[in-house]
């Protein structure tokens, strides 16, 4: 398949097909759905982090006019199973029951305790107030390290421990031996604060029963309609083939909709009990309590190096906050990071241990990047610390350690084989765009002048693992599903094309990109392609959208299905043109006989010929439709260099991003406009972690940052313009050479920004600032440094010891 | 229940509503005008922004009864005879949306800005959109879209 049309569509900034309905308000969000007899479901949630339910009485709610039903957890328990955790990462992992609604004990503020169903949403919300609940408080479990201590209060008393699992990975030489021979060792502690994903569309679910057939249609604002269908069948006992899950237009996810939520199971159960359609839509504040959070880790990092700045070894001890329950992939998130701490660097020893801990907080799970941003942050912060320790430029330290272009494919110490990359090229391009040397010169001048507003420069050179994932690898990691993706192509009689994909987009532009891929291979007009997705009836097979897998696995499947269509069409064309298949050329959507261009049939004509089947010989099936399932042979490894310049006002603590430059290498690009948009959004989310966002709990386990008024999602006024560019090193492990882009910006930007902030303040004795680097935290770090506290390691706000030894 | 008369996107509606009913729920649940979505409950996100009698309001912060006798324009009333406004075209052409959930509010807030200030600078655009949150785009292409749509034509459409 090397026809000219390939050059026409792939690589072209096609304007999005999705936009027409979105800019005119003709969307199909789940909460828009109105069906006859629809009831509204509201959920009463625990106001306490940890308590026994002493008494619960829903009957007063039933007396309210307009209320149709009300249920406690006990009322719904029969036939409602535990919510699934599909990633039991070790054999001895502690897997507590996770009832969709609490029956006798609540384990986080927001845990559901009762549901009310009413004729409209106002009545349902009002009636919650009438439900009577008495709680016997239990001690909250909030501190990750104290939770592991002997005699600590337990989140799940029956399990006898708050330790969920310990997962080790040790490769290369013995780290302790490497440390012995090292000239320099550094130890650092980093905190990955909890984040709230904040997809703009709140979660919603509508369940419509078709009572006579025992069937249910579930509309959900989900990233994973296919996985949701399987899991709802498991949780409710309704047979899978009686469930149809539809993800209509979905307003963002960022991992928070990569989930099987209790509310989905509750709406289905209640609709089944009542035989009526039921809708639940979360409010934002409710979502802050009940939609899973991201990050939430303490990282202890130790590196051993030579005086020349060559890394010898890396040791990571990670404590990860699971929250109160294990959601779909909660335990596996830190493991995705486990393989990424060594990043793009060569070293002799790597030792990693993760301990998962239960706390009485909202469960954690995937959030944009899922494990990889945390890992990249830790190693990139530490590389800067090494540079500072040795008096080297941070970029130079990276150069001395990274895998060189000619060394690919390269198997990292964590065991991943990076197929392709060119860190030198991306970095050189980024440095030039950024004006690195000029900024360093200006920084020097400002430091000499002792300016109150300091300039800081942060660098982050990163790679990530995308394209989740080869099924055999997932099996090795004890993940309970495959990593393949499905696509089929239906050639319609009129020549139009339907591409059916198992991916389930929520803003990524699959309809546009998959159309480009299909149009490219088939040589048909872009406008003639329609993409069908997000409905388990229309697109029955799929593993959905997360982990930057859609293009690398799903787009690849579309590509291969289209190639199959061409090959099937070739047989028909050969017959119609009375030529041998060998003598046919396929170009610009048409087969012609070599040397006789007038003997020609377009693939769209062939679709019609196969529909009529009037002239097909025996043995040729009357269809050129094709389907395929692709299991990737490896992950893909996008990489890049991000550079950030900040101005930090040492009097107010305010950080202003002065410039942000990134050069990403995501392999071959299908739609440059969409790639740029994904990078912008990702960088914005990473900056948000660095500077603004944090889920804050008080000492009783109440979520203090419980609304958008308290949790600082950055606005247009808070962010700068970003300068984005690309290098292009095609992936070797898929036919298009693509690598994925959804998470790159988020992974790379957080360390770039924090490195810049610390770089600005380092001359003043500051060696770390805990995220988010708010004015308050910066002021504290400066104050602590001035008073000589903990070597100015920002200890004031985090309590970290700022340990360091230099041999 | 209170009787209200409201003109929305060119159509007049008469209804009996509870005094506490929010305008956004009136639009969505009673009139079926679901082009205006809801993103939060604290008036921070701006997705539900509409035009009420020439002023942009967050329709989650206005009661339906307050719109009595008024004229509301939502995103669904922007295009005329299927012809998109310059702003709608610019959001499309500049890739100023991804999931699109914030887009109706962004369009309404940007329209208001251009009505007041047909030639804003990018900082003015960023300030004007401060009350509208987007999680997908990082705002850069939204700002680009508003700048692309600025000028006399946009101003004319916005005030039409």
TrEMBL record, chain A:
Transport among keywords: no
InterPro entries (UniProt xref): Ald_Oxase/Xan_DH_a/b, Ald_Oxase/Xan_DH_a/b_sf, Ald_Oxase/xanthine_DH-like, AldOxase/xan_DH_MoCoBD1, AldOxase/xan_DH_MoCoBD2, AldOxase/xan_DH_Mopterin-bd_sf
Protein name: Carbon monoxide dehydrogenase
Domain Aldehyde oxidase/xanthine dehydrogenase a/b hammerhead: 24-139
UniProt key word ATP-binding: no
A GO molecular-function descriptor: iron ion binding
Source organism: Streptomyces pluripotens
Family matches, as SUPFAM superfamilies: CO dehydrogenase molybdoprotein N-domain-like (SSF54665), Molybdenum cofactor-binding domain (SSF56003)
Entry-linked PANTHER family: ALDEHYDE OXIDASE 1-RELATED (PTHR11908:SF132), XANTHINE DEHYDROGENASE (PTHR11908)
Keywords: Molybdenum, Oxidoreductase
TrEMBL record, chain B:
Keyword Iron-sulfur: yes
InterPro entries per UniProt: 2Fe-2S-bd (IPR002888), 2Fe-2S-bd_dom_sf (IPR036884), 2Fe-2S_ferredoxin-like_sf (IPR036010), 2Fe-2S_ferredoxin-type (IPR001041), Beta-grasp_dom_sf (IPR012675), Diverse_Oxidoreductases (IPR051452)
One Pfam assignment: Fer2_2
Source taxonomy: Bacteria, Bacillati, Actinomycetota, Actinomycetes, Kitasatosporales
Keywords attached to this entry: 2Fe-2S, Iron, Iron-sulfur, Metal-binding, Oxidoreductase
Domain 2Fe-2S ferredoxin-type: 2-78
Molecular-function GO terms, alphabetical: 2 iron, 2 sulfur cluster binding; metal ion binding; oxidoreductase activity
Pathway membership, UniProt: Alkaloid degradation; nicotine degradation
Record carries keyword Metal-binding: yes
Protein name in the entry: Carbon monoxide dehydrogenase
Source taxon at top rank: Bacteria
Organism from which the protein derives: Streptomyces pluripotens
């Amino acid at each position: 398949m090397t026809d000219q049309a390939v050059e026409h569509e792939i690589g072209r900034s096609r304007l999005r097909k999705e936009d027409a309905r979105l800019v005119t308000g003709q969307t199909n969000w789940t909460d828009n759905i109105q069906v006859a007899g629809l009831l509204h479901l509201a959920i009463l949630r625990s106001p306490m982090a940890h308590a026994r339910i002493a008494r619960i009485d829903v009957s007063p709610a039933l007396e309210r006019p307009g209320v149709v039903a009300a249920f406690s957890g006990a009322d719904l328990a029969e036939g409602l199973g535990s919510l699934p955790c599909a990633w039991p990462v070790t054999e001895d992992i502690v897997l507590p029951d996770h009832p969709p609604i609490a029956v006798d004990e609540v384990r986080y503020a927001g845990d559901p305790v009762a549901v009310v169903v009413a004729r409209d949403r106002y009545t349902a919300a009002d009636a919650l107030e009438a439900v009577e609940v008495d709680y016997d408080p239990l001690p909250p479990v909030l501190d990750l390290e104290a939770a592991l201590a002997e005699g600590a209060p337990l989140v799940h008393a029956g399990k006898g421990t708050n330790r969920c699992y310990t997962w080790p990975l040790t490769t290369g030489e013995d780290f302790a031996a490497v440390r012995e021979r090292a000239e320099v060792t550094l130890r650092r502690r980093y905190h990955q604060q909890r984040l709230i994903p904040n997809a703009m569309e709140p979660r919603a679910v509508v369940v419509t029963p078709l009572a006579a057939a025992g069937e249910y249609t579930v509309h959900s604002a989900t990233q994973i309609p296919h996985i949701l269908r399987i899991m709802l069948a498991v949780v409710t006992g309704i047979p899978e083939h009686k469930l149809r899950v539809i993800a209509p237009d979905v307003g963002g996810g960022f991992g928070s909709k990569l989930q099987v939520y209790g509310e989905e199971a509750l709406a289905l159960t209640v609709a089944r009990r009542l035989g009526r359609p039921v809708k639940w839509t979360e409010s934002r504040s409710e979502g802050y309590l009940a939609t899973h959070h991201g990050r939430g880790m303490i990282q202890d990092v130790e590196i051993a190096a030579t005086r020349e700045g060559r890394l010898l070894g890396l040791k990571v001890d990670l404590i990860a906050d699971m929250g109160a329950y294990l959601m779909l992939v909660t335990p596996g998130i830190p493991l995705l990071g486990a393989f990424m701490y060594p990043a793009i660097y060569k070293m002799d020893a790597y030792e990693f241990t993760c301990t998962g801990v239960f706390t009485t907080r909202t469960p954690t799970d995937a959030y944009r990047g899922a494990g990889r941003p945390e890992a990249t942050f830790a190693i990139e912060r530490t590389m800067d610390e090494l540079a500072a320790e040795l008096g080297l430029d941070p970029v130079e330290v990276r150069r001395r350690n990274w895998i060189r272009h000619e060394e690919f494919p390269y198997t990292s110490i964590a065991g991943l084989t990076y197929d392709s990359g060119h860190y030198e090229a991306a970095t050189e391009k980024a440095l030039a765009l950024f004006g690195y040397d000029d900024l360093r010169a200006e920084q020097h001048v400002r430091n000499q002048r002792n300016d109150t507003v300091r300039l800081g420069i942060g660098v982050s050179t990163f790679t990530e693992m995308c394209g989740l994932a080869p099924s055999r690898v997932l099996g090795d990691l004890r993940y309970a599903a495959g990593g393949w993706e499905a696509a089929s192509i239906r050639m319609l009689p009129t020549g139009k094309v339907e591409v059916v994909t198992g991916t389930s987009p929520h803003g990524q532009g699959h309809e546009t990109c998959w159309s480009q891929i299909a149009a490219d291979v088939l040589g048909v007009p872009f406008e003639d392609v329609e993409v069908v997705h997000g409905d388990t009836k229309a697109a029955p097979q799929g593993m959905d959208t997360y982990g930057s897998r859609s293009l690398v696995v799903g787009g690849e499947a579309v590509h291969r299905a289209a190639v199959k269509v061409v090959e099937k069409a070739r047989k028909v064309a050969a017959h119609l043109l009375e030529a041998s298949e060998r003598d046919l050329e396929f170009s610009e959507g048409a087969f012609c006989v070599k040397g006789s261009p007038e003997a020609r049939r377009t693939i769209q004509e062939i679709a019609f010929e196969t529909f009529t089947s009037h002239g097909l010989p025996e043995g040729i099936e009357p269809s050129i439709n094709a389907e395929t399932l692709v299991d990737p042979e490896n992950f893909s490894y996008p990489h890049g260099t991000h550079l950030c310049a900040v101005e930090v006002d040492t009097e107010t603590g305010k950080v202003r991003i002065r410039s942000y430059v990134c050069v990403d290498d995501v392999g071959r690009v299908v739609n440059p406009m969409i790639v740029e948009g994904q990078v912008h959004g990702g960088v914005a989310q990473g900056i948000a972690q660095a500077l603004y966002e944090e889920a804050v709990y008080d000492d009783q386990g109440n979520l203090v940052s419980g609304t958008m008024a308290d949790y600082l999602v950055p606005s247009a006024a808070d962010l700068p313009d970003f300068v984005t560019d690309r290098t292009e090193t095609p992936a070797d492990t898929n036919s298009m050479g693509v690598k994925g882009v959804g998470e790159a910006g988020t992974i790379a930007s957080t360390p770039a920004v924090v490195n810049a902030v610390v770089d600005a303040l380092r001359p003043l004795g500051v060696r770390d600032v805990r995220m988010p680097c708010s004015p308050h935290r910066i002021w504290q770090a400066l104050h602590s440094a001035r008073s000589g506290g903990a070597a100015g390691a920002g200890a004031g706000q985090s309590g970290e010891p700022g340990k360091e030894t230099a041999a | 229940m209170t009787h209200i008369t409201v003109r929305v996107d060119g159509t007049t509606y008469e209804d009996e509503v509870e005094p506490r009913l929010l305008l956004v729920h009136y639009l969505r649940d009673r009139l079926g005008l679901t082009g205006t979505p809801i993103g939060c409950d604290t008036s921070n996100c701006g997705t539900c922004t509409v035009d009420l009698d020439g002023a942009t309001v967050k329709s989650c912060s206005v009661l339906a009864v307050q719109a009595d006798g008024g004229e509301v324009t939502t995103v669904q009333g922007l295009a005329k005879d299927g012809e998109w406004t310059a702003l709608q075209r610019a959001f499309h052409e500049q890739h100023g949306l991804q999931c699109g959930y914030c887009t109706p509010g962004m369009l309404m807030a940007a329209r208001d800005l251009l009505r007041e200030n047909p030639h804003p600078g990018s900082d003015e655009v960023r300030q004007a959109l401060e009350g509208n949150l987007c999680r997908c785009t990082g705002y850069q292409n939204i700002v680009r879209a508003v700048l692309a749509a600025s000028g006399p034509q946009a101003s004319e459409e916005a005030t039409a």
